[in-house]
Write a structure and sequence with these properties.
Elements (H helix, E strand, L loop, with lengths): L12 H20 L3 E2 L5 E3 L1 H4 L7 H4 L3 E3 L5 E4 L4 H10 L10 E9 L11 E10 L5 H16 L6 E7 L3 H15 L3 H7 L6 H6 L5 H8 L10 H16 L4 E3 L11 E9 L7 E7 L3 H6 L5 E7 H10 L12 E4 L4 H15 L8 E4 L6 H9 L5 E4 L2 H6 L1 E6 L4 E6 L4 H9 L3
Helix pairs in contact: 1-5, 1-12
Amino acid sequence: MIKIIKGMKDYIPSDVFVYQYIEKKFRKIINSYSFNEVRFPILENSNLYNKNINKNNLLFKYMYSFNDKNNLNISLRPEGTMSCIRMYLENKLFNFYNFNKLWYIGPMFRYEKPQKGRLRQFYQIGLEIFGNIDTGSDLELILIINRLLKELNINNLFILEINSIGNLNDRIKYIKNLNILLNRNDYFIKKKKIKKLDFDLFKKLDKNNIDYINLMKNFPKITDFINDRSVYNFNYLCELLSKFNINFKINKNLFRGLDYYNDIVFEWKYKFWSSQNTICAGGRYDYLIKNLYDIYIPSVGLAIGLDRLALILKENNILSNLNKKIDIYIISYFNYKTISLGFNIVEDILNSDLYFLNIYHNYFKYTKLSKIIIKVLKLNCRLLIIIGKREFNKKVITIKDLYLNNQFSISVNKNIVNFISNLLKIN
C-alpha cells in the first residue's frame, strides 16, 4: 500500500470543518477591514527567494527547489510575502488606491523535520499592507488578529510579544558589538565552532544552552542600538496598544526568522506549548521591495499558521459542540423509483425558499434501515424522510420530526416542500 509522504497530512472531513470554521470567521473580519483577497501560484522562480534570503537561513536550506524541463530553477513557495510583492508589482496594483491592503490563504512548503504543528506542507493566511510607513498599519494588523482570536474564543490563551529591531545599519552595529564580546569568550566560540557571528546565526543559536544563557545575561540588547525614529515608532505603537486594551509583552530578544524585517516585529505565542508556540507573526519590511525591484514601497505584513491554530482549537475543545449540521436526512435506496423520488425532493427543496437547508440524501444501502436511523439520531438532524418498501407500495413518504418526536405519512402527490415549510414554520 502506497502511503502519504513524510511531513504531509491528509485532512479528513472533521479537520476540514475546523479550517473552514477559522476561515469563515476570518473572512467576515477581514472584509470589514476592506482587505482584498488575492491568489498567486504555488511555484515561483527561485530567484525571487534567493535574492533576499541569507543562505545560512534555515528557510533557504528548507526550500523545495528544482529545475523544470526548460532548466529553469523553480521553488515551491516557502512563504507568501515575496510572492504577494511580485504579484502586486507585476500587475501594477499600486495604481489602485484601494488595492494596497491584500490577504491570501493557501499552502506553503518547507523541507523541515515534521513536529507538532509543523508540517512540510502547511497552510497560512497572510496579510500585507503596501505603501504606508505610518505605525497605523502595524496597529491595524494587530487589531485584526486580536479580533480573530476573540471571535474564536481563544484570546486568553495567547500573549502578544513585540519588539523593535531597528534598521539594517542598527543591526550591523549590533552584530559588530556582539562579535567583539564573543571574541572574549573563547570557550563558547570553540564549543559552538563559531568563527564570526552574523544576524542570522545569532537567531539560530540554541537559546536553551546554559553557556549561551550565561553569556547573554550581560550582553546588550538590540534595543540599545536602534535609532531615535525607530524608538519613537515603537513607543507610539505601545501607547496605541494600551489605548485599545490589547495585552502585550515587550520581548527584547524577539527577532523574526527572515532577514528582510526592520523596526517593529511581533508574535502571538500560545501560552501552553513550550516550543513551536507561535501561531501568528509579522513585522515591517520597508526595504524588501526596494531590494527586489529598486522601488521604495514601505510595507508591513503577517502570517497566521492555520495548522497550529486548528490544533489549538481541537486541544481546547472549542468546536466540540459544533458539527456540520444536517437539517434533512433522506433515505430512498429501496429501488430506482424511490431513489428518483428522493432526488426530486432534494431538488424541489433547493429550488424553493428552503434552499439554505442542508440535506443528506442516502441512496446507497450499506446497512439495515434501523441502524441507519440510529446513526441519524446522533446527527442532531431535524427531519428524517424515508422512502422505503412500505412507502413505495403505498405511494407515500414518511416524515419524522426528530425534535418533536412526531411522524407523518404524506402522499407522494402532495406538495412536500410546503409541508416541510409549514412543519418547520418557515415563511
